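Action item from last week, closing it out:
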Amino acid sequence: MIVAAAIGDHAANVYGVGSLVVGGLALWNKSQPSQEENAQAEYKEKKRVAEDRRAARRKVEEEVEGWREERSKQQRAVGRFRPAPADVAPPGTGMVFMGRVGIDLPALPNLELPDSLTARQTCAQVVAGLVRSVVQQADDHAAVLRSLAADCWRTGRYRTLDREGQWSPIQQGQRLTPEAEAAVEKACSWVVTRDELLSGLHSPVNDVLRPLHAHGARFQSWQENRSKAYDPPGSTVLPGGEWHTFLLAMADDFADAADKLDALPPYQTPPKLSPTGIARLKENTVAEAVEERITQYVRKHAQRLQDAPEGGFLMESQDWDEATRLLTDFRTADIGRRFTQTTAGFPAVSRWNDTMIAAGVRSRMHCVFATFALTYLVEVLKSMPDYADHSGENIPPQGIVINAGVVNMAHSLNIIGSNMAAVIQRGDTESAEAVNALSAAVQASQSLNAQERAEQLENVADVATAVAEPEADGNRRRGRNALAALTAATGASSQITQVIEQWQHIFSSLR
């Protein structure tokens, strides 16, 4: 009986537990659809939020693109500012008439060139007038920028692009008025054009204007910054106060540039150089052909200079290149080097155009440098007979009996010329000038007859060899003995001895 009761209690407990399990399962089944619905609803909400964000981002991007497109339209409509062509100050500086001198060569009759001395004075005056003009304009820009700094801005808005490619919320800032922004663009453009105009000719100008280039680069970087977008379109919006600081700094630097330009030393015109008295042509070069080419060139451009109306003369770049090529027939490099030195500055002037500088001023400077070039080439023509002699062209063919002294002179001149060409090639033009001066003094000496002149030129040839190769076996000693022989043969008061004394700092190296 007791066992039966225990079995009955156990069965009741099992029944109770089973009922609870079945009830839990029923409740779980009832709640399952509700959880799925919640998950779906949560997914839909997240999707909606993401789409809203994408839509908002697209809206901002479209807004930014609209700002930029409108800015591009305005820039295309306005175009780039470019200052008026530069002119001299006061007007007419360097525009006076340059006197003319005849070309004293039978092959070039009835032709004249502007006086080279007057041309050099004119060149200095024109450059000084251009610098004065730049000084005045720099002061003007400084005054305009300083006045704008007081009240030149309006409110504006901008967005900034972050590293993830997201545009920031709209931020408030300041923008220049259209008139102020145009003034800044004009000032920046002015710096570039005036630097291009003068720096190649008068290099200190570039050093003075360099700080102003930094302002232009900064202004341009703001305008072209792809990580910022500005509203209203066409403006450049900066945080408050930055425009004021920028304009004042720019005005100060323009004023400082004006002061420094005004204090620059005067422009130094190219030196007046003549061709060397002794020079040789390259092998297999015919002196008459070289002379004819130079004559044709001088005739053509001297005639153009003579016939051109006031303000109507220009030298094309290819014409200038041709002048340089004419002198490449010389083995003596100093002939071409002196031409380059006496016309230094023309490459810069040749790059000028009528948008950079007034046409009359440009023409006057072309006239000036053409005068430098043609004057030099005329002197080359006058020396061509001597150059032909030095090159050995006048030595008669073998088998003809001639004066031995003449042959010796030509041989000595060849030695002098070839050695001095080597000296010039290594950059020692002063030593070459010393030996050439000594050779010229011997050739011009009135106290020597032809045979004596030939003998003394042999001594000069020994000096030339010693100067060219002082360390070679015996050269220094032979050069030293040759100098002593020259002094002994001509006397202490002769022109030859005076040349030796004049160039003592060169010839003393042979001792």
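Closing note: Strands lie at 100-102, 112-114, 153-160, 171-176, 228-231, 237-238.
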